[in-house]
Amino acid sequence: IDGSTGYSSVSADLFCDGQAGMMGVAIDPDFQKNRFIYVYSSSKLNNKLSNRVMRLKVNDSLNGVSDRTDIVSDIGYKPVATKHPFGGPGAHNGGRIRFSPADGYLYVTTGDNHNGEIPQSPTIIGGKVLRIDRDGKAASDNKPPAGFDPRIYTYGHRNPQGIAFRPSDNRPFTAENGPWHNDEVTALAN
What is the pTM for the complete model shown? Predict the structure, then answer.
């Protein structure tokens, strides 16, 4: 990340700006065997602003990573300010990742970039919750409407900032920020 020092590895394409930057980290359920972690961050790779989910391998000493693989590279990024509250560049990125203890899939929340059309779009993956495998491919039993990106688990979200799984039944819930207030907790159903 720009301005970071003293870390074992920093990728030049990752950056922070407003609500954008390092948004989530998830540890692979099989970490003891495969040493994988997943990072959700803003990127300017190839001079294109986006948000990405990357898989990294942690070394045996737990002090370095290698083998970066971008498993999701097409999550939208808001490049310019708008007149929305907290409307600067990078706003409404959403951005949390969590493995489900029930099905082992990685859930990725994505924000609407302050664009009300994006959560309803069948092909733009903002304003959605994605459900993917460790390589970024759609969970085989996702049920998006016809014509929608197969990685989409649920859609129509504004700016989901959190995701958790209820311990009693592992049902996923998102936390979404409202304008100024009126935040909501949403139980997901597919």
Answer: 0.93
Spatial distance between the Cα atoms of 36 and 188, rounded to a whole number of angstroms = 26
Laid out side by side, the sheet with 152-155 consists of: 94-99, 106-110, 128-132, 152-155
C-alpha 126/C-alpha 75 separation (Å) is 6
Distance of alpha carbon 52 from its chain centroid, rounded?
7
| Cα 118 to Cα 57: distance, rounded to the nearest angstrom | 33
CA angle in degrees (0–180, nearest 5) for 106-86-76: 40
Give the whole-angstrom CA distance, residue 79 versus residue 66.
29
Beta bridge partners of 65: 58
Amino acid at site 36: F
Alpha carbon 163 to its chain's center: 10
Residues 6+ apart with CB under 8 A from 87: 81, 114
Q: What angle do CA 112, 117, 119 make, to 5 degrees?
A: 50
Task: Compute the distance between CA of residue 19 and CA of residue 22 in angstroms, rounded to an integer.
Answer: 9
Q: What is the pLDDT of residues 128-181, one digit of tens each?
A: 999 999 999 999 999 999 999 999 999 999 889 899 999 999 999 999 987 777
